[in-house]
Structure formats: structure tokens, C-alpha cells
Amino acid sequence: MDPVAEPYARPPARVLLVDDHPIVREGLATLINAAGDLAVCGQASGGADALQLLETCDPDVAVVDISLADRNGVEVIRELIGRRPQLPCLALSMYDESMYAMRVLRAGGRGYVMKQEVPKKIVAAIRRVLSGQVYLSEAMATRLVNHYVTAAPASTHPTSELSDRELEILTLLGQGKGTREIAEQLFLSPKTVEAHRERIKERLRLNNATELLRYAVQYTLDRAGAMATT
């Protein structure tokens, strides 16, 4: 009698990590590889590296940090999906999801998880998007449903005119950070941050730096208040 064939074992899903902090990447890689059904196939420090690894490691899912050195993570997700439309992408960030979750979804991403979440939730988020579903926190999912049910069809927030990087800079301004501090955090030159500030003023129709700072602080407070009431 022929020996009984061993049952087929499905290979772990390949995960591409995109984060510009080596220590964070290594920690995430250890967490993901320990899951058993997931394995990190490549680690990228920015968008350019991620696009290159997309071809060489053939990932099943990409986990992308929002704040990267060379470009905003939302833009990277958009580019990855542009090259590989079926690739599920999960955004990972220190920023509150109320600021970026909708932008990630509009870019084609499948979910958003904050770095402060417990490890098992990060792994659960990866598994969820791999299964073809969307991953958001319960609070954010409820907020989005309420928004679409109650918002007037034509209503848009002025910040919807901002690019992802501009929104990131507006948020940091609202947290009290100056141009040089923002430049260091985002790995940009102060001149580039100043250029972004000028474009933010133009798009929000603000007259000067004082109005910009006031708007940024109020925007950040409003977002914090929305989170507190959810």
C-alpha cells in the first residue's frame, strides 16, 4: 500500500514592511514571523525601497507607516496599489486614525492600525486585510458610518484640499512644533517645510503665519474632541 501523503501545509503569507525606523521594523518583523501563518519577505525604509521590493519579494500584503522619510505613506500605498491593484495594504501609524483613515481608504488601502495597539491587534489587522476585509477600530468604523448617514452630500472639510504631507505638517503645527522641529521629525529640509506651509495657507485661504497657527491648533483640538466623544 502506498504511504499516506502528508497533508498540504499552506505557506505563510508574505508581508512587506515599510517603516523608516529600523528598530520598529525589527520589532514588527519579530511579531509577524512569530504568528506562524505570516512571514516578512522584505523590509523597506521608504517608498522607493518599497516599490523595488514589490517586484523582488512578491508580497501578499504590505504594512506601511504613514510618516516616511521620502514621502507620505498614503502616497506610497497609492503607488503600490497602482503597480499591484490586488495587493492589500494596511497603514500603520502613530497618528490618530481620525486624521488619516479616510485618506488611506481613498488611496485603496484596506485598513489602518495605530502603533499603540497591542501586538495581537496588529497581527489580527494583517489577517483581516489578507482575507479581503477592511480593518478599522470599532470607534472609527462607527464614526465613518455616522458621517455618511448624517453628512450632507456636498459637505467637505477645508482640509480635504490639502495633500497628505500638508495635512501631516498642519497637524504637527497644531501640536506646537516649529518649522525646524517638523523638518527633523519628517526628515525634510526647513525650506521644504516652509514651502508646504505656504501652500497650506493658500489652500486654506489664510492670510499669514498667525492665522495658520491658530487654524492648526483649532484643527488639532477639534480632532481630539471628536475622539473623546466617540
Major sheet, described briefly?
Answer: 5 strands, parallel
Q: What is the mean pLDDT?
A: 83
Order of helices and strands: EHEHEHEHEHHHHHH
Give the assembly state of these chains: single chain
Radius of gyration: 20 Å
Q: Label the overall shape.
A: globular
Our measurement of the CA-to-CA distance between the termini, rounded to an integer number of angstroms, reads 64 Å
Q: Based on helices, strands and strand pairing, what is the structural class?
A: alpha/beta
Helical residue percent?
Answer: 40-55%
Range of strand content: 5-15%
Strand arrangement, largest sheet?
2-1-3-4-5
How many extended strands?
A: 5
- How many distinct helices? 10
Report low-confidence residues grouped into runs of 5 or more: 1-8
Describe this protein with a few key phrases:
10 helices; 230 residues; alpha/beta; five-stranded parallel β-sheet; disordered N terminus; single chain; 53% helix
Task: Summarize the structure in short.
By secondary structure, this protein is α/β, with parallel strands linked by helices. The chain is 53% helix and 12% strand.
Describe this structure in words.
By secondary structure, the chain is of the alpha/beta class. The protein has a 5-stranded parallel β-sheet with strand order 2-1-3-4-5, sandwiched between helices. α4 links the parallel β4 and β5. α2 runs parallel beside α3, α7 crosses α9 and α7 packs across α10. The N and C termini lie far apart (64 Å).
